[in-house]
Amino acid sequence: MSGPNGDPNISVDDGIIEDEDEFSEEEYAAIDSMLDQINSCLDDIEDRNDALNGKLHELLESNKQARREFRQQLNDEEPPPPPPPPAEDPASRDTQTED
């Protein structure tokens, strides 16, 4: 019979694999404390991320508003562009060059 990792000469019955994990109360308390610290750090990172996201959103909106005001100011100050010259008729150009 092959072992748990496919090793042909190792049997589950050899006593190598023990499913019983024996941890003391102190080890469980230490693990619990570490998980609490990790959770606290993740909460802090999430709060900072939310704050940065909000600030970036405010900055984006502020920049959009500033660009709108700048465009409006430019439009108010600039005279309208002159109309384009009339398009020439190709037939009239041919009659002018025949002289």
UniProtKB/TrEMBL annotation:
Name of the molecule in the record: Bublin coiled-coil protein
A Pfam family matched in the record: UPF0184
Ranges where the record places region Disordered: 1-21, 63-99
Compositional bias of kind Basic and acidic residues: 90-99
Phylogenetic classification of the source organism: Eukaryota, Metazoa, Chordata, Craniata, Vertebrata
Entries under PANTHER family matching the protein: BUBLIN COILED-COIL PROTEIN, UPF0184 PROTEIN C9ORF16
Record InterPro entries: BBLN_eukaryota
